[in-house]
Amino acid sequence: AQSVSQHNHHVILSEAASLELGCNYSYGGTVNLFWYVQYPGQHLQLLLKYFSGDPLVKGIKGFEAEFIKSKFSFNLRKPSVQWSDTAEYFCAVNARQAGTALIFGKGTTLSVSS
Amino acid sequence: NAGVTQTPKFRVLKTGQSMTLLCAQDMNHEYMYWYRQDPGMGLRLIHYSVGEGTTAKGEVPDGYNVSRLKKQNFLLGLESAAPSQTSVYFCASTLGAGVRNTEAFFGQGTRLTVV
Question: What is the model's pLDDT at position B29?
Answer without folding.
Answer: 93
